[in-house]
Amino acid sequence: MPRFYCPQPLPAGATVDLPEAVAHHLHVVRLQPGAALTLFNGEGGQVRATLLESGKRRATARIDTHEAIEVELPYAVTLAQGLPEGTKMDWIIEKAVELGVAAVQPLAAQRSVVRLSGERAEKRQAHWQGVIEAASEQCGRNRLARLDPLLDFGRWLAAPAPAPRILLSPRADQSLADWAKVNGPQALTLMVGPEGGFSREEEDAALGAGALALSVGPRVLRTETAALAALAMLGGLWGGM
Questions:
Q1: Following DSSP, what letter does each residue of 195-241 receive, concatenated?
Q2: Which of 77, 102, 136, 165 lies in disulfide reach of 141, CB 3.0 to 4.6 Å?
């Protein structure tokens, strides 16, 4: 059944105008009035709806029933990702959302090749938000992962940490798997560097600020692989997958 994110109230029995982007999608795939839809607004649960009208820029639907369905992880993981080059960040965010990440914090690290500021940063932020919404539509999540503004690594590190910070490093003596087996499910932040990883200076600063260095195995993983491997590992050990 087609499934769409609609950031608006979705009360049962109401007739609602769907977002223009959704209307355009329905027009492109030529979905006809009477078709069944699934809608969610990111506040929890989803609704079954019936398409009433479909045009190139406008579509309406009748909200039929609410379903209290949740597929969130039972622990909140924030991904603090050093900004990689090209479109790798799109891939990382998309797959991290599919694996259940609760929040994404983009970081401008010393080895980040891409530098974003001003209007360019705002446009990229809006694009990443769209990636989160599309990934949530696809994977069945009814709550959107939070996207935090891009921050300089040092500025982010200096802020209070609401949950333990795990620095993923191939130089760590202990593995994430071994640590997770001893420590039960809990909220945490995974720190992943850009291409080449965090610099030695950044790693030392993170450890000095209380972060715990852990590895994801004996092989050195690419930046677009490390966080996803860690999320899958935690899901396998702590549940929620």
A1: TT-S-HHHHHHHHHTT-EEEBS-SSPPPHHHHHHHHHHHHHHHH---
A2: 136
* Rounded Cα gap, residues 197 and 111, in angstroms: 7
Q: Is the pLDDT assigned to residue 238 strictly greater than 90? A: yes
Residue pLDDT, tens place only, 52-106: 999 888 999 999 999 999 999 999 999 999 999 978 999 999 999 999 999 999 9
- 58 in Cβ contact with 17 (< 8 Å): yes
Domain span at residue 63 reads 3-67
Residues 141 and 90: beta-carbon distance below 8 Å: no
Instruction: Report how far residue 82's alpha carbon sits from residue 141's, in angstroms, rounded to the nearest whole number.
Output: 25
One-character DSSP codes across 82-137: E--STTHHHHHHHHHHHTT-SEEEEEE-TT-S----HHHHHHHHHHHHHHHHHHHH
Report the number of distinct structural domains present in the chain: 2
CATH code, domain carrying 9: 2.40.240.20
Tens-digit pLDDT profile for residues 118-167: 888 899 999 999 999 999 999 999 999 999 999 999 999 999 998 999 99
Residue 114 has pLDDT above 80, yes or no: no
> Residue written as tokens 């990702």?
81
SS3 for 42? coil
* 123 and 36 both lie in a single domain: no
* Contact assessment for residue 105 and residue 79, using Cβ atoms and an 8 Å cutoff: yes
Separation of alpha carbons 81 and 107, rounded Å = 6
Same domain, 193 and 103: yes
Q: Considering only CA atoms, which of 132, 150, 149, 131 is closest in space to residue 141?
A: 132
Whether residue 72 lies inside any domain: the answer is no
